[in-house]
Specification:
elongated, mainly alpha, 46% helix, single chain
Length: 97
């Protein structure tokens, strides 16, 4: 019987991997992953309403460190604390009145 090219057995395809696709050829170590996460948080430019809690805490930390030397930090401190209360206090915005 002549080989017509179509009757050759197909190699079984590799099973599809579960989960998120890899970013790089080798997986990141926990230390590398944490470093990338901190770096991304550091440069987060989102608005106050849109920023995540860890970013808000970083901004609050900066304001606390610089409140003695910077007028901007003193003003930001009040804004960040009000946002923190608005998000996490059981009474929300009414707690600020």
């Amino acid at each position: 019987m002549a080989d017509d090219g179509g009757s050759a057995e197909l190699e079984p395809a590799e099973p599809k991997r579960r989960g998120r696709p890899r970013l790089y050829a080798t997986p990141l170590s926990q230390a590398e992953r944490a470093k990338r996460y901190r770096k991304a948080r550091q440069w987060d430019e989102s608005s106050l309403d849109d920023c995540r809690d860890p970013v808000l805490m970083d901004r609050l930390s900066w304001a606390l460190k610089h409140k003695e030397t910077s007028e901007d930090a003193r003003a930001a401190l009040d804004i960040y604390l009000e946002e923190l209360v608005r998000r996490h206090h059981s009474k929300g915005k009414s707690a600020l009145k």
